[in-house]
Write a structure and sequence with these properties.
Helix 4 runs antiparallel to helix 6. The protein has two domains: 125 residues, Nucleotidyltransferase, domain 5, CATH 3.30.420; 157 residues, ATPase, nucleotide binding domain (Nucleotidyltransferase, domain 5), CATH 3.30.420.40. The chain contains nine helices and twelve strands. By secondary structure, the chain is an alpha/beta fold. It starts with 14 loop residues before the first strand and ends in a 17-residue tail after the last helix. The strands form three sheets. It has a five-stranded mixed beta sheet, with helices on both faces. A five-stranded mixed beta sheet has the order 10-9-8-11-12, sandwiched between helices. Strands 5-6 form a two-stranded antiparallel ribbon. Pfam families: ROK. Belongs to the ROK (NagC/XylR) family. This is ROK family protein. InterPro entries: ATPase_NBD, ROK, ROK_cs.
Length: 321
């Protein structure tokens, strides 16, 4: 994994499709001979109608296939839910109505080989490939908090294929309970929902994530406090990773993470304050692909197939969005 390699490269086997299934939206990118010919983001509709959501996914895939002008060779899917070997959703805290439902079904009409991968893991791989980094940590902050680890040019997937769940590193044992049931997970304190709640308390007024981003741009005191709060907690998690895997680079992405431009610098400052003397620290920056790292990873999976992640079956759990 040396040098820069764009996600739409010449290794793409003709027509392929990338799909990112997130907690609040779908994103699709159709690629023909290494060139993106169609890209669309579709928000999930309000309500808990899994059948309707499945139909929306199927229709969005059909639209992209239509733009390609024929069945893609392969579809790469970056999945937020935890998916079993049979293609059915095992858990999806943000959309519990999908549990037990097939995530393969909406792709049946595509005529393509369909490969699933963890959304944040694929994002980490895309960031490593596009930046030429052999040792990288990716942290995606949005509806949930996901992570991907690349060490020595290889993905770290673990014994069960789901390593890198950085959102479940405990950074505050007395903190709020995470949807996984544990107290103080990183996801419980720096997800979009958690940061909006912190900003609301700091501001004394109900505040959305969009308002938080705007407040950070204006350097409003209440927004600065929330930014520092997030930086401190993320630095605690990275402090562990610095000792365990020694990344050279950390990339902050996801819908909210990419929008908070000053966040990487704040994290770097916090991390340096707790560093062991003489120990090198990673360079921390915004994601190369901004909020679209998972989609870029899905495009890589579509282009290169299972060998992209070491030849293992990439159908495994996603980040808890």
């Amino acid at each position: 994994m040396t040098g820069t390699r764009p996600f739409t490269d010449s290794a793409a086997p003709g027509r392929v499709l990338a799909v990112d299934i997130g907690g609040t939206k779908l994103a699709l990118r159709a690629v023909d001979a290494g060139v993106a010919v169609h890209e669309r983001t579709v928000p999930w509709p309000a309500g808990g109608d899994a059948a309707g959501q499945s139909d929306l996914l199927a229709a969005s895939v059909a639209e992209a296939v239509g733009v390609l002008g024929g069945a893609p060779v392969r579809i790469g899917v970056a999945a937020a839910p935890n998916v079993g070997a049979d293609g059915c959703v095992v858990s999806w805290p943000n959309r519990p109505e999908w549990v037990g439902r097939s995530l393969r079904a909406p792709f049946v009409g595509s005529g393509a080989e369909v490969l699933f991968g963890d959304d944040a893991t694929l994002a980490g791989l895309a960031e490593a490939r596009s930046t030429g980094s052999r040792d990288l940590v990716y942290l995606g902050i949005g509806t949930g908090v996901g992570g991907g680890l690349v060490s020595g040019g290889r993905l770290l997937t673990g014994a069960w294929g789901t390593a890198g769940e950085l959102g479940h590193l405990v950074v505050d044992p007395q903190g709020p309970r995470c949807r996984c049931g544990t107290r103080g997970c990183l996801q419980a304190v720096v997800s979009a929902e958690a940061l909006a709640a912190h900003a609301s308390a700091a501001r004394g007024l109900a505040t959305t994530t969009a308002e938080l981003v705007a407040g950070v741009r204006r350097s409003d005191p209440w927004a600065e406090r929330t930014l520092d709060h997030a930086a401190d907690l993320i630095a605690r998690a990275l402090r562990v990773l610095v000792e365990l895997v020694q990344p050279a680079h950390v990339r902050i992405g996801g819908g909210l993470g990419a929008a908070l431009a000053p966040l990487p610098g704040r994290i770097a400052r916090r991390l340096s304050e707790t560093a062991r003397p003489g120990r090198p620290l990673p360079e921390i920056g915004s994601a190369f692909h901004g909020p679209h790292s998972s989609l870029a990873g899905a495009a890589l999976l579509a282009a290169h197939g299972p060998s992209l992640i070491g030849g293992a079956d990439p159908l495994h759990g996603g980040s808890p969005a």
